[in-house]
Amino acid sequence: EEKEPEDVATGDQAVCVPDCGGKECGSDGCGGYCGSCQEGSGCNGAGQCEELQSCELLHGIVCGGKVDGDTKLYDNGMSSYSCKGYLGSGPEVGYVFTATADDHIVVDLYSPFTDLDLLITEASCEPDSCLTYDDERAELDVKAGKKYFLMVDGQADSAGPFTLSVSCYSTCAPDCAGKECGTDGCGGECGVCPGAAPFCAEGICAMDCTPDCTDKNCGDNGCGGSCGNCPEGWSCDDFVCEPQDDPADGCESIGGPGCPNCFCEACVCSILPECCAIEWNAKCANMCGSGDCNGCPGEGSFGWACESNGECNSDLCIEGLQGTNVCSTFCVEDCPNEWSCVFNPEVYHTKFCSTECYPDCTGAQCGSDGCGGSCGTCQEDHVCVDGLCDVGSVVSGACTNDGDMTAIIEGGETLYEQAMFCGLTCEGSDECASDCMVEGAGLTSACGACFGTMGVCTSTYCMNQCIGGFQSSECAKCASDNGCLGTFGTCTGFE
Asked: Which of 254, 309, 438, 477 yields a CA-CA distance of 20 to 30 A from 468?
């Protein structure tokens, strides 16, 4: 259980005492942080760095929101969840929900042609943080200001189209009493009718249906069809087309990308990138004006246009995504899409959200600089361990202990493929690849450094030759010719 920060009385003022006992990352309880994780890793709830799994997160979804998607468009990054004992090896996609108040939410998933499941996790791309799941409807009590991740994943290798909607009791209480199908009154559904009785008539599934468009010029005809579509700039309100007013605080739909001089442009586009990449439409304007833009509710908040630090609640005004200055905010690990959580003491006193990345090689001789570059490479008889060039792991036969030998025997040829994968995903960082081997293959840090360094070299120089596998003659020759195997035998002890 996480220890609450201690307040110490100093004169007439209580001072917060930071507490990082046993933590290597995350909050210190007083607005600062206990450390940051290297690229490719994230901070878990216990304040420990762990490797992030790959998953696709799209834009945020709010109370009353509904989205259509198709998991076939994405990749499989997560296959098992702590709240459900099955192998979800189909591709998955997720949406971010931020609670604006303590609430009870109902999330509905409609996927009639595909075996998809809905899972709600507490942390981004971390299946071990799963809170609840269901194949159609999941409910959860949520806390104000907290983010939740709504993941749609396929049983086995299933993939296909779906509709996802969110209802909130604070704004609407779903009501399905006595109903088999149809709307729950809050944007969700009360159920899906079977093929034998496919039509929903006043909440009851029926074999036949008579369309009814009396006094309707848009919306559902009661049988799954439409009574008409509203023209652009109009919306369907209670089956009647009404002019759609742009929000007073928003920016009108302009038919092109972006919203110049709009106070919440950076904030909206960080959540809906298409608003600045393709078109600033009514959806973008509504997010801006309604205050649903996460983190951008008003003057001085993150995303607010500014000219000086004093105009921002965070006292930090920096260049945003569109080249204009906006208010930033402090962070621990996460920032909105296309923003990074960085630290530069010359700019701000703690970590903050930025569109720039600041390389950091403090105390490092090698490995990643945190921005895709390198802090240096080690000479031939050394390997990079925790940012330092270490010769000890090379001369001592790092992998000859019982634990590493067992992991190597069990891993077999896949261990070398793992090394290639780590080298590729770590983009040239020996330190990152070493940690990747420790996490992915169960090797010790020193032995993982041997495999990680070899994987970085091989993936850098021999990707084309190694497409058929690390054990192929073309791959082995290329790795040897480029010196990737020069110290590997000595390092592991398997000469």
From this structure: 438
